[in-house]
């Protein structure tokens, strides 16, 4: 590998940071210019992510610098390292893809609703990419805070009393989570003397009983901080309101924020508290199972109770988070690939739904939203006065919006033949991957409850989406056709097309997910690669 390829690992962080700094002094009247620069930066990051994902998919030997970037040329665990593997490459690609869709959507009109939208967006992207690439807990905190600080401004973008109220709640909750993060990191560092995740994985098994208590206490506090971000019940009370109040492009990119918490929990749980952790192996697993299942149930109830599409999408985020948390906690190695497939599919679907909501609601009647009653209640409707035409032509805009809404409904409910169904099938198949003779011993009551919750949450999504879809597209009061421009509907179509492509390429995608799962289930292999990575210029 040439030296310039080695530096590709840090560009997804540096490029958005540099562009954010460049955009700040540009006059706000030139938002189109700022938007073009920001979109171009995100496009470059997306291309870089695809290149890095290709390196990661082809194996460790082909990764630039063995997939380890040593800042200052200091080796781990003494220096700051960025680590690229299949999982981090997958998250980089997913993040930049969502960012492209959200930015394109915003340039229709939403980026003019406040100041410094594109600068904040680039800072958010830098924080997300840094969180996925970093190899130590301290810099995870740094990138986590960068991401949160940008998200505060983006959530408040557009002002309005509802948005400000939800934004202040969001800020308060996440500041509390950040404080817990620092406390947890301090306990772990004070006991082990390291914050490098690869180094922790090698030291955890040898820690004595007294120090192990402090490490597990720090890990528990750290876990609470990330479970707040992941939206696990009962720490998720803020999420549906905050996401529903955000502007559509902000809500679209926020679909990946809960996955940051999922990513960190998955990474630490399998790397630090995996099968090689000795007495700490499986630490917190039961809490993840219980909390994840309760989150699925809470989210499904919220989906059924939601009358507004924004809140329905917010509770769908909770269902997605609960499904992933419980899958991690159940500890079946065969489920991990399905969980990763579900993570990608659900994130793309929810982001598309958030972008679609505002377009659909432009044509909805306010009375139908508040009262949810039939057309006859709004006037002197007489069935005898129907027009002689047998059918009524569907306007092109409503046809496109309706088709996108139907695809979202099928994906959220997990119905065949789309990626939502494939993901749930992979999860259930991985749950019962033991030989037939050992199946009864390998499964537990929790496994069957998880299967029931997967099915019931899909049923809840189907009922709720049918109810809102009928009210919006079938029983429209005024028949108002919303004005939708191409730059707004295109990102929605692209995200849904990505889900369809994922469905058509489920075989190659599942092979990549399985290889990623195999990497995660062999934590010492990753640790050895990070700790033994050669310094730049050494032979």
From TrEMBL:
Protein keywords: Cell membrane, Membrane, Transmembrane, Transmembrane helix
InterPro entries given in the database record: CPA3_Na-H_Antiporter_D, ND/Mrp_TM
Location(s) in or outside the cell: Cell membrane; Membrane
Origin: domain of life: Bacteria
Protein's recorded name: Monovalent cation/H+ antiporter subunit D
Main location: membrane
Family label: Belongs to the CPA3 antiporters (TC 2.A.63) subunit D family.
Topology class, membrane: Multi-pass membrane protein
């Amino acid at each position: 590998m040439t030296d310039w390829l080695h530096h590709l690992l840090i560009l997804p962080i540096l490029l958005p940071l540099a562009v954010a700094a460049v955009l700040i002094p540009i006059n706000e009247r030139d938002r189109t210019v700022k938007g073009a620069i920001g979109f171009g930066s995100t496009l470059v990051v997306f291309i870089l992510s695809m290149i890095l994902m290709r390196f990661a998919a082809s194996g460790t030997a082909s990764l630039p610098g063995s997939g380890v970037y040593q800042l200052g040329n200091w080796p781990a665990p003494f220096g700051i390292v960025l680590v690229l593997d299949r999982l981090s490459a997958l998250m980089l690609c997913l993040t930049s893809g969502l960012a492209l869709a959200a930015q394109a959507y915003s340039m229709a009109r939403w980026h003019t609703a406040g100041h410094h939208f594109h600068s904040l967006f680039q800072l958010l992207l830098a924080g997300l990419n840094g969180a996925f690439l970093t190899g130590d807990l301290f810099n995870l905190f740094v990138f986590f805070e960068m991401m949160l600080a940008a998200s505060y401004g983006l959530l408040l973008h557009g002002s309005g009393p509802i948005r400000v109220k939800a934004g202040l709640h969001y800020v308060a909750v996440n500041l509390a989570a950040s404080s817990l993060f620092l406390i947890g990191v301090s306990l772990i560092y004070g006991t082990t003397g390291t914050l490098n995740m690869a180094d922790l994985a090698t030291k955890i098994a040898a820690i004595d009983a007294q120090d192990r208590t402090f490490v597990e206490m720090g890990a528990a506090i750290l876990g609470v901080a990330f479970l707040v971000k992941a939206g696990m019940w009962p720490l998720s009370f803020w999420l549906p309101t905050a996401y529903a109040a955000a502007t559509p492009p902000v809500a679209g990119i926020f679909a990946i924020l809960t996955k940051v918490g999922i990513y960190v929990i998955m990474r630490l749980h399998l790397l630090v508290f995996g099968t090689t952790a000795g007495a700490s192996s499986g630490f917190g697993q039961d809490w993840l199972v219980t909390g994840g299942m309760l989150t699925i149930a809470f989210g499904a109830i919220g989906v059924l109770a939601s009358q507004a599409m924004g809140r329905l999408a917010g509770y769908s985020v909770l269902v997605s988070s609960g499904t992933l948390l419980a899958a991690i906690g159940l500890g079946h190695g065969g489920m991990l690939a399905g969980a990763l497939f579900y993570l990608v599919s659900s994130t793309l679907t929810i982001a598309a739904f958030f972008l679609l909501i505002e377009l659909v609601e432009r044509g909805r009647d306010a009375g139908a939203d508040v009262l949810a009653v039939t057309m006859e209640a709004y006037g002197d409707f007489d069935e005898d006065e129907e027009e002689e035409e047998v059918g009524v032509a569907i306007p092109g805009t409503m046809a496109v919006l309706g088709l996108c809404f139907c695809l979202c409904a099928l994906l959220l409910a997990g119905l065949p033949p789309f990626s939502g169904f494939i993901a749930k099938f992979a999860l259930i198949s991985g749950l019962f991957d033991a030989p037939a003779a050992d199946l009864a011993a390998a499964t537990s009551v929790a496994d069957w409850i998880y299967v029931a919750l997967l099915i019931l949450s899909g049923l809840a999504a189907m009922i709720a989406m049918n109810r809102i879809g009928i009210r919006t597209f079938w029983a429209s009061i005024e028949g108002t056709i919303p004005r939708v421009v191409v730059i707004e509907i295109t990102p929605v179509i692209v995200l849904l097309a990505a889900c369809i492509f994922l469905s058509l390429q489920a075989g190659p995608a599942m092979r990549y997910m399985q290889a990623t799962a195999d990497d995660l289930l062999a934590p010492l292999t990753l640790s050895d690669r990070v700790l033994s990575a050669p310094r730049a210029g050494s032979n």
